[in-house]
Sequence to fold (345 residues):
Amino acid sequence: MLKRILAVMLAALMIFAVGCNDNVVYDDLSDYESEAQTPVVDDTQTLTVNPLTGVAELENADKAKQRPVAIMVENSTISMPVQTGLSKADVIYETEVEGGITRLVAVYQDISDLDKIGNVRSARYPYVDLALGHNAIYVHCGQDPTYCAPHLNDIDDLDINSDDTGSKRISNGLSSTHNVYVLAQDMWKRISDKFDTTVSNSSEWVNFTNETLTLDGGAATSVSVPFPTSTTRFTYDASSGLYTRLIGSDVQTDYFTKETTQVKNIFVLLTTITDYPDGEHRKVSLDSGDGYYITNGTVQFIKWSKGSSTNSFKFTDTSGNEISVSAGNSWVCIANKSTCSPSIQ
Fold:
């Protein structure tokens, strides 16, 4: 109370002094101002580890015990510049669909605080298996009616339409085929109302570590994975310890937020990819195979396996020992071993 009285008296004296002397030197009032204005910061909040990234970043333990959301995202050449929400994804899978193009399924542990995600496209068979491996709710806009549609009976899914609850068509300079986006907070409310979103097991996706890993396969500051109609490229940013996604030679930025799209880990999994009987849609084997794990500007050769549709991936070294993975988000390229020759240098 005494400090406040003194502060008022001092302020009055200062006003008087201004009227008498334009060169007056004021006393420092920071002590009084800080007492009245400095906000009280709650530093007692403990963040919970995200099981998809190994990073303590979730507001509370309940968020770690909820089912992830897996969202189909278009990845054609024209759609890459209008993609949004990828930098917020915990795990992104990329593989072939048809015509040599790829699509993404972006997996999020918590979308309740996010904004827009997309642009959203239709479901394909292997992406259902990828979502099932995380026990995720699968969000898409349409589906392949012949091969994928029957498989949707095996998963909790939402087939969204334009301006449906939790989604919206937003003008982005492309046709209506390419402008459907998930409105994340509304979508989470819709999901919560429709499905049981809790899980009994919230174990981490892989064997995460907070140690700075240096892998034994050599340098990996540039990564290129050639798919039939486009090449997925990353370059290592040593200052952040992250890999930046490129579109051609340009850094990819989020269409809405302008954030740079970056990931901590890259997996390149080689497998068998063939045509379904229609000669159009692609059948991707998710059984097992060889691959590469890339982090911190280095690479190692790995073995991978998944098997059953509800299984998650298992990553081991060439001797069969489970590998450690840097805590952070991941991009998983699943490519055709008979045609894809990744460039990692």
User: Anything to note?
Assistant: Residues 2-20 form the longest helix (19 residues).
